[in-house]
Every structure is written in structure tokens, then in C-alpha cells.
UniProtKB/TrEMBL annotation:
GO terms for molecular function: ATP binding; ATP hydrolysis activity; calmodulin binding; metal ion binding; P-type calcium transporter activity. InterPro entries: ATPase_P-typ_cation-transptr_C, ATPase_P-typ_cation-transptr_N, ATPase_P-typ_cyto_dom_N, ATPase_P-typ_P_site, ATPase_P-typ_TM_dom_sf, ATPase_P-typ_transduc_dom_A_sf, ATPase_P-type_domA, Ca_ATPase_N_dom. The chain crosses the membrane at residues 171-190, 196-216, 353-375, 395-424, 818-840, 886-907, 958-979, 991-1012. Catalyzes the hydrolysis of ATP coupled with the transport of calcium. It comes from Ziziphus jujuba (Chinese jujube). It catalyses: Ca(2+)(in) + ATP + H2O = Ca(2+)(out) + ADP + phosphate + H(+). GO terms for cellular component: plasma membrane. It is an enzyme of class 7 (translocase). This is Calcium-transporting ATPase.
Length: 1037
């Protein structure tokens, strides 16, 4: 079976090939309800059509963006005939420009149109907004009414009755209803009204019950996925509103909003550039062109959906939602659905195999029953005499065969994966992890290695300046220090220079919050420096007004520094400031400020002593950076910022404490067989100190710097990677190389964290890409499979725990369902062959089908993870899904159930002392009742496939308890009250006790089975079918 599944039903978790997707679809043959079975499967035809539409639209956009005349003909010709006439609705609202005109100016990159309206300031006047204070909150509903909402057109969600209709598309249920209708007709004709209709009506009511419960379950799943999809697309945008800086959802953005953009952001709407530095935009997602576009006052147009590749800036929103090209493109991107997960595909394969076996048994059962019936008529010389009773008999045989198919084709197997994933995703969302790709939940259970960032993931990201070295003096800062701290150490000119280097060369801003207080906006490092500058008596606004910034090179993970050119007021000079990674800045300097505040040449001895200061700070787990400046004599050249000849001002040590619980989370990973590696851009000594504190760097572990790693040969990498625990001063390319080596050479299942734009390739390459929700850029999030909303390493471990729970829950459900399949098939077939009748009626079998399908999935596929999951090694790649342990349990339980039910069938009357006219009916009821209770107790057995104690945590799993109570409660109602429809009779206390005891014995059988050792294959010696070898015999207890 496993070989067949590997050959036909195996797809990659990320970016599966078209060939693999087509192969498993063509291999699926026995499907009762294609609409339901394939609801969570990508529609390849729709996807291909959507791709064609997208490429066509991209081509039009490319023409619009890069061929100006064609753009005006294509976009503007239909809309801008001379000029737009202002409608009454727009003029009454106080605006001076039509929504379509405003949208077409930006889409067509119409510079003349912008000029006619008075530039960006004129457009701001037309839409009644101040570029300094932004939109007034009370005007938002009016703007949304005139200019629209920032949402793209979506298909209306399917209503509940559509799910009912889909559940009714099951071929076997349709055949059963037709058979039931025919049975009612024949029954009324032969037995009269109302007795003749009970059998058929019972089947119809059972079918409707199955349909309703299935539809309710599917509808609830769809609502969960809809909420998750909405959350996935929700981007938080920085805007200025009511004169203060604030964060809003992309869905709440309106025309007139002033949006702040920085590296890695997605442009949230169409707009026009207000101000900024070195703003470079990647328009490939919109136009397909990979060459970045520089945006400035001369080329001010910004389009929704594009990404900020470099620089920063402010934009005025001019059009939103479906008035943007991105809105139109998003409609095509939503077509076709998401790729199916590997487990969904594999369980489609299992369902196909079992379906074929079930179909064969159903046909065989029908043939045997029909043959016995014909032989019986021939023996009694009635072969030429046919009555409506005979027709009813044959109809019942046919219904029995169809019921066998209903029970034998486990349609719920693939959908149980969806149910389990939906449940896990909902729980993870509550635990601050947003799953963007369904398959990531499964894959995370197999993770053998986590490559994690340091800052913000292992540490709190709440940074404060802790130490400073300036003018050859080191000072440790205390909480109560004030502005006199540095004034007593250095001259006023040096302090002024140092504060300039902080406030001029920064990516942060001091803005007024909603509460009227000043707050610092920026990265934690920038915030810590700016906060220190303010503490030392600096005034952010004064420095911003006095000094004009000429050019900015923002910090990124490749440069590892930020530089600016500023014009010095008064003398017309130009000064460059630079700050960043200590070693890099120190190498750019040839002078340093001495104890007198004078610039003196930087000797080798002096350079070494400063390096010792840097390493001393780093060994205390401080994040170190240097600030430097250079006065430029030739002020005519302001296009480039110098790369050398700087004067070192100070070395700053920033404290970023380790998050509480990280050490315990790392220990949990190690106990679970997951290797944790730290990959950071920080100094190697800082990295090692933090790694030791977290428990990542252990004795014998290797810490290496990025430049050393990337210069290694492939053979050297093979030798060092198994010991590698810390990589410092790394570039994004180093992280990508490490991930590729781990996946391709060492066959590891790798999870990688990332937050920056340049981390996108590594996130894309990894088996599971984990983007940071707080520090992460939109580019990083877009390339990730899971977004860690609180940037916490503990949350990553929780995702791994849930990944393992999903895999194990599906295994439990498959074990339970296959047991029911085997017992139902063998019981009906054996009984039909030997007695000429099936022991369970159509209504009873439908109820059993409901227990094993929808209710079984609800009970077993939604079990929460337990602590034991993280004490086992990871699930290996390409392990057998149906393990030897599962086959042992399935076969053992099946043999017990088949034997006990057949004994009841053939010798039950004698054993139970049943006499009288209703003895047969009573026996059949006991068989049905015992069969159901066998499944109830076997469902409890399936909660743990290896350990004897299956009751642990039973009462904390409320879905399981609800299903158990509902199953038992409804079984009592069926037996005691619905006998007319279900063909049962009420049972006395003794027979109820017998039924329950027969079911309960399966608990004892399970204990015996779990003491039988399972032979391990070569593949599973390291990973026992995905898990470690567990103790057997007395150790289990």
C-alpha cells in the first residue's frame, strides 16, 4: 500500500509540481461525492485560466507603466475626454476632483495631469487634506462613500444551504434515497399504509441526518478558513491622521491618508510621493518587470501592491480598492484555490484503495445474496413466480450493497485533515501564530532544525543603551542617569556632534501620539539610540530644522550600516554621518576623537584597544554599534556618501535581554530532536553570549562568522554544519546557503525565521518559513508560511507541537476508521454468504457511517497536543503513514469485533436465552448495539496508539467528550424509541449491560495488543515510523 501511495499520491509540501498534482487526481477512481471530497483541493483548470488573465492584465499594466503614450490610450482614452465634470455628490462633499479622474492620473503616470492640479499640494487641496496633519477621523465615512473602500471584489461566501446541497451530491446517498422511495412504494403496496413506508422513510431520515451533520461540520470549517484568510491579507499601515502618527489596517485606508513607507513595506494603495529619501520600488508583482523604479518629486507615482525595495518616504493615497490595478489583479489571484497538503493527498490515496476493496465486496455481497435468493426459488420451484415481495427482497439486497459502499469508501479521510488543520490553525491564531499555508502545519511536525534570528525572537526587542565609550572613556548607564552624564565626561562640541550623529542619521521619528505625548517610532535599535539622545538633553525637532538632509542610505542587512549627508548651516559645508556594525564602521575610520575632543590619527594600537572595548561590550551580551562623521570639503558632490576617512565618535552598547521562557523552549526543542541554530547579523561575541544564555551554544558546538562560512568549500561545509550552532555577522545569502545545505545535503526538514526583505529567499527556500509579525516586513511575511505575531521563539515551538499533533491526530482517526471499515465489510460479507442476510440494516449502517466519518473526525482529529509529543524525535521524511503499530491495532481489534459479532449472529439466541417471536429482532438489536459500543470504546483506544493509559486528558478534550456523549445518547434513542424506522426493539438492562461489556472488552484487547512488539523496518530504526521506539511490556504502564 505504501509503495502505491508513494508512487501516485505524493506531493511536495511547498510548490508542488503540476505533474504531481495531475498524477494523484488521475489516480483517484472511487469517489462518492466529488464536490465535497475535492472542495479543499485546488481547481487546476480555474487556476490556469486565472494565470492567463493575470499575465494579460500584467502585460497591460506593463504597457501603461513603460510606454507612456500607449498607457494614455489604453487607460485614459475611455475615461478622460478633455476633462471630468464634477458630479453633485462629489461637490456637495466638498471635494474638487472625481474619483475616476484621480485614479486615472496615477494609473497613467500622467505628469501633466498632476501639474494641472497644482502638484501634490494641489491634489491634497482637491481632496481636502493637510499633508502635515492627514485625514480627520470624522471624515472617513464620507471619503469611503465618495472614493470607495480599500477592498477588492470577492466572491460571496457559500451559504449553509449550499453545503447541504453539496453533501446531497453523494452518489451513494442519492442511490439510497431512490431505493428508499422505491421501497416505500413497494412496501405500501404490499403492507399498506403506514407500515409499508417505515423502512424507506427510516433510510431517508438517516440520509438527511448524515447530510445535515456533514453540512454543519463543513460550514463551520469554511467560516474558520474565511476568518483566517481575512487575517492573512490584513496589513498594518503607518499613517498620519488627526495630526498624529498611528497604525491602521489596510482595509481602513482612505483616499487622502498620508502613508509612511519604509524598506520591505507593501504600497497599500495607489498614491503620489510627498517626500522621502532614496525611495526605490519593486513593481514586479504588478508589471512583471524585475528592475526597481526610483520614486522622487519628478517621478512621484506609487502603485498599490508594489514593494519598497530601499529608502523611505511619505505618500498621499489617491485611489483604493477596485480603482487600483492591484485590486483588479487580486481578483484573478484568488481564483483556483490553495494547493492541497501532502496528508490530504495521501489520504485521498488511502480512501481510493479502500474504496476499490469496498466496491468489490459490495458487488460480491450483492451477487452472493442474489444467487442465494435465486437458488432458493429454484429449489422451491418458484423461479417463474415473482411477486412484489420478491422485488422488495432484491431491492433490500441492492440497498445492502450500496450501504457497504457508503461505509467502505471513507470519504471523510481527506476531509479529516482539513478539519484537523482548521482546528489547529484556529488554536495557533489564539497563540499568536498565523498560518498562511495549510501545509506548514503538517510540515512543522517534521521539522528537524530551526534556524532562528536573535534580535526580537530570542530576545525581548526592548532595547536600551547600557554602555558607551566616548573620548576614550567608558560609562555604564543607570536608570536614574540624566543629561549631565555626558556633559561631565565630554566637551560641549563633542556632545553636540554625538547628538547630531544620533538625530540626523536615524530612521526613527519623534511624533505626537493620540494621547498628545511624544513617542518614538522606529526599529528598536533606532528607538534606543533616539531615546538616549533625548535623555542626554538633545532636541530632535531642533536638529531636524537646523540641518538639511541631502542624501540618505538606509540601513539594510547587507550594508549593515546607515549613512547620511547633511548640509551644515552657516558655512555651506557638508558633513557625512555613519553608524552601524562596530567592526565595519571602525574599518571605515582613520581618526578618533581623543579625551580632549580632538580628532587624532587612529594607530594600530589604538584600533586594537577600541576592538577590545567592542568585544568587551559584546561579551556582556550587548549589541554594539559605532557612530562616526566626516566633513567633506568638496560640497559640490553630494551624489555619493564616502566609504572611508571617517572620524570615530563613540561605541555604544545596547542591552536587549533574553525573553523569559526561551531557554526552556530551546530545551524542549532539543528533547524533541530539533536542533536550534542561531543566525544573526550581530557581533560574534554578542551572539555567543546570548546563545549560551539561551542554551543554544553547547560544549563542542561551533560558532562561526558569515564571511568565514561563505568562503568554505562544499566539502568543508559538510564537515562543519553538523556542529554549527551559531552564525554571526551573516548576510541573508549566508542564511540561504545554510538552509539549502541542510535540506539538500543533510535531508533535514528546516524551519527558518526572518524579518527583513533580504530574508525572503531563505524563507522561500526553507521547508517552513517563519516571518516575524512585529519586526517583519511585508515582503518577508509574503514569502513565509507562518507569521509569528509576537516574534517569540516560544511560539515557534508551539507551532511545532501543533504540527506533530495534527499528524498524530490524523493517524488516530485513520486507525479508528480502518477498523470500522474492516469489521463492517467482513461482518456483512460473511453473514450474507452464510445466512443470506446482512446483520445490520441500511439505517443502522448509515448511523455507523456517521459515527466513523464526521463524528469520528470531530472527536479524534481535534485532540489538543500533549506534553509527550515534544519528547519524541521528529517525524521523518517519507516515512510510512500507516505504521506497523497502527496495523497491529487495526487487525487485532478487527479480529475481536468480527469474532464476537459472528458468535452473536450464529449462537446469540442460545447464549442470551432469547425466546419468543421477537427473538431474532432482539438479537439483531443486540448485535447492532454491541457493534456501536465496540466503536465507541475503540474510539477511546485510538486516543493513543502505543500507551496503555488512553484516559489521560480525556475530560480536558471537550470535542471528544461531546462526540462520545452524543453518540451514546443518540444510540439509546435509536434503540429505545426509533425501532420502527431503525428496525430495533427496546432492550432490557441485562442486554444493555452485555452490549456495553462487549464494547468495553476492546479496552482490554488494546492493552494486550500494545504489549506485542512491532518489528521495525530499516527506515524506522532511527525514527520509529516517525517516532522513537517506546518501551514495551511493564515499562508502558
Amino acid at each position: 500500500m505504501e509503495e502505491y501511495l508513494r508512487r501516485n499520491f505524493e506531493v511536495d509540501a511547498k510548490r508542488p509540481s503540476e505533474e504531481a498534482l495531475m498524477r494523484w487526481r488521475s489516480a483517484v477512481s472511487v469517489v462518492k461525492n466529488p464536490r465535497r471530497r475535492f472542495r479543499m483541493v485546488a481547481d487546476l483548470a480555474k487556476r490556469a485560466e486565472a494565470e492567463r488573465k493575470r499575465l494579460k492584465l500584467q502585460e497591460k499594466i506593463r504597457i501603461a507603466l513603460y510606454v507612456q503614450k500607449a498607457a494614455l490610450q489604453f487607460i485614459a482614452a475611455g475615461n478622460r475626454v478633455g476633462h471630468y465634470k464634477l458630479t453633485k455628490q462629489v461637490s456637495d462633499a466638498g471635494f474638487s476632483i472625481e474619483p475616476d479622474e484621480l485614479a486615472s492620473i496615477i494609473r497613467a503616470h500622467d505628469a501633466k495631469g498632476v501639474e494641472q492640479h497644482g502638484g501634490v499640494e494641489g491634489l491634497a487641496r482637491d481632496i481636502c487634506v493637510s499633508l502635515n496633519h492627514g485625514v480627520i477621523s470624522s471624515e472617513i465615512p464620507l471619503r469611503q462613500n465618495i472614493y470607495g473602500f480599500n477592498r477588492y471584489a470577492e466572491k460571496p461566501p457559500k451559504g449553509f444551504w449550499m453545503f447541504v446541497w453539496e453533501a446531497l451530491q453523494d452518489l451513494t446517498l442519492i442511490i439510497l434515497m431512490i431505493s428508499a422511495a422505491a421501497s416505500m412504494g413497494v412496501g405500501i403496496a404490499t403492507e399498506g399504509w403506514p407500515q409499508g413506508m417505515y423502512d424507506g422513510l427510516g433510510i431517508i431520515l438517516s440520509v438527511l441526518l448524515v447530510v445535515m451533520i456533514t453540512a454543519i461540520s463543513d460550514y463551520k470549517q469554511s467560516l474558520q478558513f474565511k476568518d483566517l484568510d481575512k487575517e492573512k491579507n490584513n496589513i498594518i499601515v503607518q499613517v498620519t491622521r488627526d495630526g498624529c502618527r498611528q497604525k491602521v489596517s489596510i482595509y481602513d485606508l482612505v483616499v487622502g491618508d498620508v502613508v509612511h513607507l519604509s524598506i520591505g513595506d507593501q504600497v497599500p494603495a495607489d498614491g503620489i510621493f510627498i517626500s522621502g529619501y532614496s525611495l526605490s520600488i519593486d513593481e514586479s508583482s504588478l508589471s512583471g518587470e524585475s528592475e526597481p523604479v526610483d520614486v522622487d518629486k519628478n517621478k512621484p507615482f506609487l502603485l498599490s501592491g508594489t514593494k519598497v525595495q530601499d529608502g523611505s518616504g511619505k505618500m498621499l493615497v489617491t485611489s483604493v480598492g477596485m480603482r487600483t490595478e492591484w485590486g483588479r489583479l487580486m481578483v484573478t489571484l484568488s481564483e483556483g484555490g490553495n494547493d492541497e497538503t501532502p496528508l490530504q493527498v495521501k489520504l485521498n490515496g488511502v480512501a481510493t484503495i479502500i474504496g476499490k476493496i469496498g466496491l468489490a465486496f459490495a458487488v460480491l455481497t450483492f451477487l452472493v445474496l442474489t444467487a442465494r435468493f435465486l437458488v432458493n426459488k429454484t429449489v422451491h420451484h418458484k423461479i417463474t413466480h415473482w411477486s412484489s415481495q420478491d422485488a422488495s427482497e432484491l431491492l433490500n439486497y441492492f440497498a445492502t450493497a450500496v450501504i457497504i459502499i457508503v461505509v467502505a469508501v471513507p470519504e471523510g479521510l481527506p476531509l479529516a485533515v482539513t478539519l484537523s488543520l482548521a482546528f489547529a490553525m484556529k488554536k495557533l491564531m489564539a497563540d499568536k501564530a498565523l498560518v498562511r499555508q495549510l501545509s506548514a502545519c503538517e510540515t512543522m511536525g517534521s521539522a528537524t532544525c530551526i534556524c532562528t534570528d536573535k534580535t526580537g525572537t530570542l530576545t525581548t526587542n526592548h532595547m536600551v543603551v547600557n554602555k558607551i565609550w566616548i573620548c576614550e572613556q567608558t560609562k555604564t548607564l543607570k536608570r536614574y542617569d540624566d543629561e549631565n552624564l555626558l556633559k561631565s565626561l565630554v566637551s560641549e562640541s563633542v556632545l553636540n556632534l554625538f547628538l547630531q550623529s544620533i538625530f540626523q542619521n536615524t530612521g526613527s521619528e519623534v511624533v505626537k501620539g493620540k494621547d498628545g505625548r511624544n513617542k518614538i517610532i522606529g526599529t528598536p535599535t533606532e528607538t534606543a539610540l533616539t531615546e538616549f539622545g533625548l535623555l542626554m538633553g538633545g532636541d530632535f525637532k531642533t536638529y531636524s530644522k537646523e540641518y538639511k538632509i541631502l542624501k540618505v542610505e538606509p540601513f539594510n542587512s547587507v550594508r549593515k550600516k546607515m549613512s547620511v549627508l547633511v548640509a551644515i548651516p552657516g558655512d555651506g559645508g557638508v558633513r557625512a554621518f555613519c553608524k552601524g556594525a562596530s567592526e565595519i564602521i571602525l574599518n571605515m575610520c582613520d581618526k578618533v576623537l581623543n579625551s580632549d575632543g580632538e580628532a587624532v590619527p587612529l594607530s594600530e594600537e589604538h584600533r586594537k584597544s577600541i576592538s577590545d572595548v567592542i568585544n568587551g561590550f559584546a561579551c556582556e551580551a550587548l549589541r554594539t554599534l559605532c557612530t562616526a562623521f566626516k566633513d567633506i570639503e568638496d560640497s559640490s558632490n553630494v551624489d555619493t556618501i564616502p566609504e572611508d576617512g571617517y572620524i570615530l565618535i563613540a561605541v555604544v552598547g545596547i542591552k536587549d535581554p533574553v525573553r523569559p521562557g526561551v531557554r526552556e523552549a530551546v530545551e524542549t526543542c532539543l528533547a524533541a530532536g530539533i536542533t536550534v541554530r542561531m543566525v544573526t547579523g550581530d557581533n560574534i561575541n554578542t551572539a555567543k553570549a546570548i546563545a549560551k544564555e539561551c542554551g543554544i551554544l553547547t560544549e563542542g558546538g561551533l560558532a562561526i562568522e558569515g564571511p568565514d562560512f561563505r568562503n568554505k568549500t562544499p566539502q568543508e561545509m559538510e564537515e562543519i554544519i553538523p556542529k554549527l550552532q551559531v552564525m554571526a555577522r551573516s548576510l541573508p545569502l549566508d542564511k540561504h546557503t545554510l538552509v539549502s545545505q541542510l535540506r539538500n545535503v543533510f535531508k533535514e526538514v528546516v524551519a527558518v525565521t526572518g524579518d527583513g526583505t533580504n530574508d525572503a529567499p531563505a524563507l522561500h527556500e526553507a521547508d517552513i518559513g517563519l516571518a516575524m509579525g512585529i519586526a517583519g516586513t511585508e515582503v518577508a511575511k509574503e514569502n513565509a508560511d507562518v507569521i509569528i505575531m509576537d516574534d517569540n521563539f516560544t511560539t515557534i515551538v508551539n507551532v511545532a507541537r501543533w504540527g506533530r499533533a495534527v499528524y498524530l491526530n490524523i493517524q488516530k482517526f485513520v486507525q479508528f476508521q480502518l477498523t470500522v471499515n474492516v469489521v463492517a465489510l467482513m461482518l456483512n460479507f460473511t453473514s450474507a454468504c452464510l445466512t443470506g442476510a446482512a446483520p445490520l440494516t441500511a439505517v443502522q449502517m448509515l448511523w455507523v457511517n456517521l459515527i466513523m466519518d464526521t463524528l469520528g473526525a470531530l472527536a479524534l482529529a481535534t485532540e489538543p497536543p500533549n506534553d509527550g509529543l515534544m519528547k519524541r524525535p521528529p517525524i521523518g521524511r517519507n516515512v510510512n503513514f500507516i505504521t506497523g503499530t497502527m496495523w497491529r491495532n487495526i487487525i487485532g481489534q478487527s479480529i475481536y469485533q468480527i469474532l464476537v459479532l459472528l458468535v452473536l449472529k450464529f449462537n446469540g439466541k442460545r447464549l442470551l436465552n432469547l425466546e419468543g417471536s421477537d427473538a431474532t429482532m432482539t438479537l439483531n438489536t443486540v448485535i447492532f448495539n454491541s457493534f456501536v459500543f465496540c466503536q465507541v470504546f475503540n474510539e477511546i483506544n485510538s486516543r493513543d496508539m502505543e500507551k496503555i493509559n488512553v484516559l489521560s486528558g480525556l475530560f480536558s478534550s471537550w470535542p471528544f467528550m461531546m462526540v462520545m456523549m452524543s453518540t451514546v445518547g443518540f444510540q439509546i434513542i435509536i434503540v429505545e424509541l426509533l425501532g420502527t424506522f431503525a428496525e430495533t426493539v427496546p432492550l432490557n438492562k441485562e442486554l444493555w449491560l452485555v452490549s456495553v461489556l462487549i464494547g468495553a472488552v476492546s479496552l482490554v484487547i488494546a492493552v494486550i495488543l500494545k504489549c506485542i512488539p512491532v518489528a521495525k523496518t530499516e527506515q524506522s530504526k532511527r525514527h520509529h515510523d516517525g517516532y522513537e521506539r517506546l518501551p514495551s511490556g511493564p515499562e508502558v504502564v
